[in-house]
Specification:
This protein folds into three domains: 104 residues, Helix Hairpins (Orthogonal Bundle); 80 residues, Helix Hairpins (Orthogonal Bundle), CATH 1.10.287.1080; 48 residues, no CATH class. 73% of the residues lie in helices and 0% in strands. It is built from 13 helices and no strands. The chain is extended and about 65 Å long. 6% of the residues are buried.
Length: 278
Amino acid sequence: MTDSARTTGLSPSPMAQLLQIMARLRDPESGCPWDKEQNFASIAPYTIEEAYEVADAIQRDDRNGLLDELGDLLFQIVFYAQIATEEGSFDFDDVARTISDKMVRRHPHVFDAPENLDAEFQRQSWEQLKAAERDTRAQADNKTASALDGVADALPALMRAEKLQKRAARVGFDWPDVAPVYDKIFEEIEEIQSALAKKASKLKISEEMGDLLFAVVNLARHLGVDPDEAMRAGNRKFDRRFRAIETGLAAQGRTPDDATLDELERHWLIAKNAENDH
């Protein structure tokens, strides 16, 4: 029995205990004021934040941190389920049952025909089943099914761009090789330059920048590079090198505010060369 189960009288089952804690936090009379005020929309940003903290713990290879962050992410799911229980739409068991049914349905090669364990067969089967599910949902909503259905608007922009491109590519909307992708990137850069020369509106320039970023994601996809991970790695590199600039200047009793752009660039090159030497 856990310490919290002993001191609070909660169920010794960890999952049941967590559900009971969430119900108490949301109790209309004795619950936590902050938790009682929340709704689906208000806690959605926290869910995204927790998912990124899980990814960060994995990136740092921090198992204790990962354990903690996975608990935080699970709590978000329990939070949603409690709100849904209160409004009578579904509960946590429904969430668990739905994902269980989906996993069994999407893995017939495991549960129905375990001899078909070839990875390519599995991938094709998975995509076919997901496409069939999208068709079913579209029919229920009296809509025309799209290959892009289910690519959530709330995904990080680079990730969503890649997913949209992959979905379109599956139905043949894609360049056969990488050469035209380079051309498209140069074309988009020229369109930005043209918009600037014409003193176009901020909205127009932003639109052209979006086209350029979309084309760069397409290049990453054709090169087999995860654009989101590449961007995170680029951010980490910038963070590391800029901190090296600050450290180098601090050794001289100075800050970046005191330095010229040429001096900052020199320290940047020192940091870059130091990394390349390792």
